[in-house]
Amino acid sequence: MTKAWMPVAALLVATALVMSPAAAATAKQQAQQAKMKDCNAQADAQGLKGAGKGAERQAFMKTCLAAGSDAAAAPSGRTAQQEKMKTCNADATAKGLKGADRQKFMSGRLSAQQ
User: What is the structure's pLDDT at 71?
Assistant: First the structure.
């Protein structure tokens, strides 16, 4: 009877060896999915949802996803206010705002986020 289980045991060991790299990729994918979920929630909270918000939302998501993790952001020395400025600046650029219109947009967004 023990010889009958040998092929099954070999198959289980082979499967475990093959699945190990896939499990590591899954953890990385899960981290990326969590980041996407967080950035989407932040975009919704900032009112970047609905018709006519595509370019603004895209700029925000690009900035948010590029920011990296909180641990990675700390060495850059940026404060929360600087991160807000960066996000608002990206949104204003996506809208194509310049001059007084850009200043008014930035002022409104930054005061609303505080």
Answer: 40
Per-residue pLDDT reduced to its tens digit, 25-52: 677 788 888 888 888 888 888 888 877 7
- The CB-side HSE value for 56 (13 A sphere, CA atoms) comes to 19
- Show the DSSP H helices in 1-114 as ranges: 2-45, 54-66, 70-73, 80-95, 99-113
Work out the average pLDDT over 57-78.
67
11, 52, 72, 99 from 64: Cα distances, Å? 44, 20, 13, 25
Q: Closest Cα partner for 95 from 67, 49, 58? A: 58
Report yes or no: 90 and 106 within 8 Å, Cβ to Cβ. Answer: no
Query: For the residues 58-68, what does the mean pLDDT come to?
Result: 82
Q: Give the residue from 94, 27, 30, 33 showing the smallest Cα distance to 63.
A: 94
Task: Tell me which residue of 13, 71, 62 sits closest to 39, measured CA to CA.
Answer: 62
Q: Is the pTM of this model over 0.85?
A: no
Length reported for the chain: 114
CA atoms of 25 and 42, how far apart (whole Å): 26
